[in-house]
Structures are given as structure tokens and as C-alpha cells.
Amino acid sequence: MLFPSSIALAALSLASVSNGLNILMSNDDGFGSGNLRELYKILKADGHDVWIVAPATDQSGQGGRSDFSKLANLTAPSEFNLIPAGAPAIGPDPIDNQIWYYNGTPAACVFVGLDYVLPRYGSFKTPDLVVSGPNFGTNLGPFLYTLSGTMGATYAAVGRSIPGIAFSGSNPSVPYFNVTNATNQATWTAEVSAKVIKSFIDATPKGQAIFPLGYGANVNIPPLNASYTNPPIFKTRLTGNADTDLAAWNETTKTFHYANLEPQAAGINACINGDCNLPGETYVVEGGGVSVSIFTVDYDAPLNPYTTMVYNKLNGIATNATTPSRRKFKRSSVYTHP
Ligand SMILES: *[C@@H]1O[C@H](CO)[C@@H](O)[C@H](O)[C@H]1NC(C)=O
Ligand SMILES: *[C@@H]1O[C@H](CO)[C@@H](O)[C@H](O)[C@H]1NC(C)=O
Ligand SMILES: *[C@@H]1O[C@H](CO)[C@@H](O)[C@H](O)[C@H]1NC(C)=O
Ligand SMILES: *[C@@H]1O[C@H](CO)[C@@H](O)[C@H](O)[C@H]1NC(C)=O
Ligand SMILES: *[C@@H]1O[C@H](CO)[C@@H](O)[C@H](O)[C@H]1NC(C)=O
Ligand SMILES: *[C@@H]1O[C@H](CO)[C@@H](O)[C@H](O)[C@H]1NC(C)=O
């Protein structure tokens, strides 16, 4: 039987809204990114309440650095001239007040989102999920984990007890206003990202956090094209065929630039945590697959004979006590920030 289309639509939207999450998005490419805004649109259409707090300018390569603007105003226009010089260093997008720019690093944007934008202006205060990206370009392996601002925004959120997922695509930079149809790399990359998010959400009982405390995910997406929009998805690990850098010296310019170390370093590829049978994310994405690696922000070495051996080298100077006596100094006397 045929329903009047408005009733069918209402039923559909009710069904999706009931699963709706409160989501904070960020990235490192800036708040005008086509990838970011395509995923924002899809997540909203899927019934989630989505807010963006993202850098005013490209903040790639900042890792987890949390750098706040020293000035109340922008000294230069934001990316793509969306916001003029002299405007406040933080504010809403001119055409969408759920999208905010801030003149800081990606991790700083997440903190500003959690501690300023959402509490003061948001339709919710604490997100159920932080989504970063999709980045323009992949972030594969532990070296990029620490270097990438996409990752930095993600592990900043995980440290704040909020599940975080980083997405990185293989497409070149495109401003959101140049994405004018649904058959382009930014939209395909966002669609694959949304599919991964949906799987995590759909498999989580209502009211439960999608990840345990301290957990996050790193998702990388291969190059897509009109006949390759639905690549296979693999459970992966960060290590395994991962690259790290070397300092390459240029005799002409007398400067260094980075280059991938060949052959790949053993140190960055040692499988210490996680399932060593899973393929490395670098390998999977190079083969045209989507990688999904699960990480934790507990960077402690696992309890095993190697760790014990290393700790034992301190036996002459350190105690083994598992419950040390309280430190004798006040927290405020500890010098924690440069
Ligand atoms: C900074 O922005 C505020 C708000 O737009 C404006 O009133 C003020 O004049 C600006 N200051 C400078 C130095 O541009
Ligand atoms: C947006 O598209 C226009 C028209 O194709 C092009 O001239 C412009 O360079 C693009 N902008 C950016 C920032 O890529
Ligand atoms: C969609 O936009 C892209 C550029 O973003 C362009 O290359 C492509 O031809 C467009 N496709 C259609 C069907 O209009
Ligand atoms: C699309 O991507 C697939 C997978 O990488 C590749 O095999 C194919 O050649 C690409 N097609 C075009 C037209 O680029
Ligand atoms: C060194 O820099 C010069 C000038 O940018 C460039 O032309 C040359 O290709 C570089 N050499 C190497 C080995 O990268
Ligand atoms: C700490 O434990 C190691 C064995 O794990 C032992 O050899 C060592 O003597 C202990 N040190 C102290 C100070 O108790």
C-alpha cells in the first residue's frame, strides 16, 4: 500500500532521530573543508545533532598540540576568506551557527568546543562522540598518529572521556563551496566515513558509550572514484608496514626536508600491543582498502617479560611499591606547562 509521502518521511525521520547522537566534529584542514562539511551533512541527515568547532586556518601537522590564540581577533582572513581579518578569533560560520571556527590548533578546537562553544551555545553540553576529519590525505601508522592534527583532535577528546574517531581520506583539498554535486571524492569519502560511524553506533545498545573509556579509532580511506565508492573495510592495527621519517639534507638549499625511511623501520613496526595477526593500516590502504585501527590513550607498556626486564634496571634506585606514599608536594607547585 502507498503512504502519503509526508507520513512516510515523518516515519523515516522518527526512526533515524531515535538513534541520534550528539556529535562534535573538528579537523585540522580548517572549518571550510569540503570533506568535513560533507560528513557533517550526512551525519545530520542520519538524525544526529552535529556541531563543528574547527580551525580558522589549515592546522595540519600540529599533532595533539593545544595552542590557543593569544589575540581576541583574527589578524588575517580565515581560510577561503570565509571570515575577514579583524573578526573575533572565535565565532560561528556566517551561514550555519552550528559550525564554529576558532584560531587555534585542532586539539585546542576540541577543548574550546567542549568548554566554551557547546556549554554556551550548543543544543547539548557533552558530545557522545567526537569525529575528526575526514582529512585531506591519509594518516597511517604511529608516526602520523602523533604528527597529525586530525589524530590530535581525536586523542584530545578520548583523553576527555569522549569516544573519538579520526577519518583521513586520499583526496586533495577542496573548499566546501566547491563541492556542488554528490559525485566527487569529498562526498564519497564522507559516505564511507559515515558507514563506519553507523556501524559503531548501530552495534551499541542505546545509552551506552560507543567505546570504552580511553579508546578511539583511526580510519583511513583509499583513493575513490565513480566506479570505486564502496571499498572493502578491514580491521587493522597501527603498526605493520608503517613509515617513519628521516631528515633528508639538500646540499643546494642547505635545508632538511622529510622523506620516508627505506626500508621501513623496525621500531615503528614492532607489534607490542593489540592483535599482531591484523594487517597494518598502511598496507591495507595501499591495497585499496579502508583501515579501521582501534587505539587507546594508555601509552603504558604492557605487563610482559620485556617490560619487567626494563623496570628491573631501576631496582637499585626505585621502589617496587604498588601503592606509593602520597607525594609530599602540592599539585600546584608542579611545573606542568612551559
Ligand atoms: C575585534 O573584534 C571585535 C568584535 O568584532 C571588534 O569590536 C573589535 O574592534 C576588534 N578589534 C580589533 C583590534 O580589530
Ligand atoms: C573553487 O572552484 C573554482 C572554480 O572551479 C576555482 O577557480 C577555485 O580555485 C576553487 N577554489 C579553491 C580554493 O580550490
Ligand atoms: C561533480 O563535481 C566535480 C567537481 O567537484 C566534477 O568533476 C564532476 O564532473 C561533477 N559531476 C557531475 C555529475 O556534475
Ligand atoms: C578507480 O579505483 C579503482 C581502485 O583503486 C581502480 O582500480 C580503477 O582503475 C579506478 N578507476 C578510475 C577510472 O580511475
Ligand atoms: C634540492 O633543492 C633544489 C632547489 O629547491 C631542488 O631543485 C633539488 O631537486 C633538491 N635536491 C634534492 C636531492 O632533493
Ligand atoms: C623489586 O622486584 C624485583 C623483582 O621483580 C626484585 O629483584 C628487586 O629486588 C625488588 N626491589 C626491591 C627494592 O624490593
TrEMBL record:
Stretch forming the signal peptide: 1-20
Domain Survival protein SurE-like phosphatase/nucleotidase: 23-227
Domain of life, per lineage: Eukaryota
Pfam families: SurE
Keywords: Hydrolase, Metal-binding, Signal
Record keyword Hydrolase present: yes
InterPro entries in the record: SurE, SurE-like_Pase/nucleotidase, SurE-like_sf
GO molecular function: metal ion binding; nucleotidase activity
NCBIfam families: surE (TIGR00087)
Family: Belongs to the SurE nucleotidase family.
Protein name: Acid phosphatase
Organism listed in the record: Lophium mytilinum
